[in-house]
Design a protein that fits this description.
Length: 149
Amino acid sequence: MTIFPACELLLGAILKNPVNRPDYYILHENIVVKQKIGDGAFGDVFIGELKKPGGNSVDVAIKMLKGVMTKKERANFMMEAKIMRRFNHENIVNLLGVAVQEYPVMIVLELCPNGALDSKLRKNPSIPVQKLIQYTVDACRGMVYLSGR
């Protein structure tokens, strides 16, 4: 068993049994933030890379939250992440994990390679009606899935 003297001095306790963190907790050191692609009320969105166990990497979207969270905000955030983690549908962006051990807090999401639908619609107002109908059907399928959860 490895004992970290600094922790023992600060806390006065020794952890005898490891506490496993949930699989959706991601260490900041496994996230590479690359390019900013958007911003919102709660933070900025970046394209980045998530280093997976075994050395593989995957491109991801990273929401980097602004500011410091209170204990209650962090608890609510973690509850929401836990709920989002259960969703698995082709029309719902998947939550890959959260990085909360240090600041900034990050939400790591599946990357949509074609970007956000609203941006695509603004940039190209002449999308064929059939394609628009397909976008609507896909969005409805995602909403039906969520309403059943």
